[in-house]
Amino acid sequence: MKKTLCIVLLVALLLPVSLVAQGSKESASAKSAVEYTPVGTFPIVKTPITVDIMVAQPPCVEDFNTNRFTKYMEELTGIKVNYIMIPEQAATEKLALVLASGDYPDAFLGFAVNNTLETTYGAQEGLFLPLNKFYSKEWMPNMMKAFEEFPGGIGFMTNIDGNIYSLPRLEGCYHCSNQAKMFVYQPFLDKLGLKTPTTTDEFYQVLKAMKEQDANGNGKADEIPLAGSIIGWSDQVERFLLNSFIYCDLDTNINANADDNVGYMMNGGKVDTAVNKAAFREGLAFINKLYKEGLLYNGSFTQDSSQLTQLVESSAQPVVGFVAGGWRGQFATIGGERFNNFRAIAPLKGPAGVQYSVAFFQNPEIGQLVLSSETKYAEAIIRYFDFMYSPEGTLLQRNGFKGEAWDWAKSDQVGLDGKPAVWQQLKLWNDKDPQNDTWIQTYTAAMTPSLKNGLASKPMTQDNPAYYLPSNNEKTLFDETTNLYKPYEDTSVEVPVLKYTAEESEKFSTVKRELANYIRQSAVKFMVGSLDVNDDKVWNEYVANLEKLQLKSVLDLMNTAYARQYK
Prior knowledge:
Number of helices: 21
Largest sheet: 6 strands, mixed
CATH architecture of the domain at 2-174 and 365-397: 3-Layer(aba) Sandwich
CATH superfamily of the domain at 2-174 and 365-397: Periplasmic binding protein-like II
Oligomer: single chain
Radius of gyration: 25 Å
Strand order of the largest sheet: 2-1-3-11-4-14
Shape: globular
Distance between the termini: 56 Å
């Protein structure tokens, strides 16, 4: 089975776009003869057309071409899209191969093309079509309306050369803005008669009690006091714990972006780093102590989120006490007993009184749709995707069909934020299981703050048994974020997104990648003890290596970009 999967993946990577999409494109003369209806009306074209779009396919979508939402869009717009599906894990490699081949689809969807790639393939090589003229109410009324809830968003989308090369994903995800959360299995605290810890010292004592006092009551020493994973949405334990010592957004996943979540921070109006500071060392030493004493699961720095879920769910009786994650569905089966009994805890106060919640700016996610500079169907594609930025289009793409998965709210319903509700959920949103009804993971859509927080919610307090059930999940997430994490957020220390010139990107891309890899690998080694964080010689050698890997030059570059954009 694995061998077959590898062969299929290899073939998908090697086949040229022209072969995969064979027979789907009309001649250039036919393309130029497309007749459009007025903007804002449907269908978009007077005579049906077919366009080719390469899409990064997530596991939760079975087939974009036969997907019910895709078929709905074809019927609505008159535009048939031939989706060339690439497995999500192969998307980055495939994008580079196709752009090097000279044989392009009309557009790329879901590849999360970042600023550096937009600069390379857009500004430098001219392979991506500039979309500036389409960023107007005349062309994209739905998207432009959504941008009103993202101040500065269009500037954020603009490349350093002045062009805009992509359409974004607009996600006003309130709970995502403080996604580095920690959860405790409440029955363990109740069994041991313990309160939720509020400091690192209390946290340590509770972990020890879970390990030594048979928290699950089965007479076995099988408890795992704390666990996380290195790959998964904020499953990293260090992302939560380090912020009791110093502000640090570090993601130790070696494949993470080299520009973001590498421990950079603002300090006195300048870009600085946490990773060479004494407080960072103290944080690593605390985590290493938990690891050495068996309080932190030893697979937390090697496993992914699916393995973390298996760890939490596989045993007959609960064994895991605390788990890091962006939400309970990251590590527990939605609606299961363990999902229903985990509770979020606030950031812990460290020995020096430090207590941060990492801030994740809700900026537009660039690069969700880029158009080939050779496409003759730009207007059709732009109008096709603009519908998805409307509230209806977003909910159809993300949740499913009106009357089945969602509906507009009734006049007496209240939203998550206490204001009149906008919509109500009829079926639980689930991005775990494969399906073919909708796209689930939105690409070009606008889950604006007003739409997100306008979800109808039944007023209830935490002592209500239904409060932590999946049916109330969005309200739970909203309240947890508001009450436990927002009080400890300081956006002034998080580095905003920085943009670089083509020359800067070319000069520093390898440098930044090597530096990021070293920081991430070293942090893990310090936490697990293969590097002794308490040995001054070892620590000083690590700091010296940061300088050899041009940390100062990278910080100088970042400060140049920061001054250019924000001063």
